[in-house]
Amino acid sequence: MRAATPSNWHAADPPGTLRPWQPGEQLPADVHDIWCRPGPDQPWRIQVMLDKSCAGDWVSRRDQRVRRPVTSLGSVTADGIPYLAPEIQLFYKARNRRPKDEVDFDMALPILSQSQRQWLGDALSLVHGADHAWLARLHDPARPRPG
């Protein structure tokens, strides 16, 4: 397998298009994701999300009232693979829900701890209001999906 080169790093320009990130290029402030793969014909291997922090806290770019300690943003699998906390990923997916985001929510819900469900519910209520479609199911995970 070849090592990833800058030509295999892509910036996600709004509104969601990928373009090669050129060596030496400073990314514009509205680029929040970088997608990487080992070669042009290989699947994407990692997504790097760019966000702000303040005094040791991650600050959501969508609403700066949503914060938490940077040290609590993710974890590492037993095999040493780092990952973003699922409740944070779901927070990002909750704004413009697509069918695949609904599937991700359905799959993650049974394994979210009470504290993860609480954090996500609080963040969704704060940003999207009390009528967000996922709130009822966060409070009652056994509740069936509407529709």
What is the element layout, followed by pairings?
Blueprint: E1 9-13, E2 17-20, E3 33-36, E4 46-49, E5 52-54, E6 57-59, E7 67-69, E8 74-76, E9 82-84, H1 86-93, H2 99-108, H3 114-128, H4 135-139
Helix pairs in contact: 1-3
Give the C-alpha Rg. Answer: 17 Å
Shape, principal axes of CA atoms: globular
Whole-number tally of structural domains:
2
Helix content: 25-40%
What's the SSE pattern?
EEEEEEEEEHHHH
What does this structure look like?
With 147 residues, the chain is an alpha+beta fold. It folds into two domains: 1-50, no CATH class; 72-147, no CATH class. The protein has four helices and nine strands. The protein has helices spanning 86-93, 99-108, 114-128, 135-139, and strands at residues 9-13, 17-20, 33-36, 46-49, 52-54, 57-59, 67-69, 74-76, 82-84. The strands form three sheets. It has a four-stranded antiparallel beta sheet with strand order 2-1-3-4, with no helix packed on it. Strands 5-6-7 form a three-stranded antiparallel beta sheet, with no helix packed on it. A hairpin with a 7-residue loop joins β6 (57-59) and β7. The protein is globular, with a radius of gyration of 17 Å. The relative contact order is 0.10.
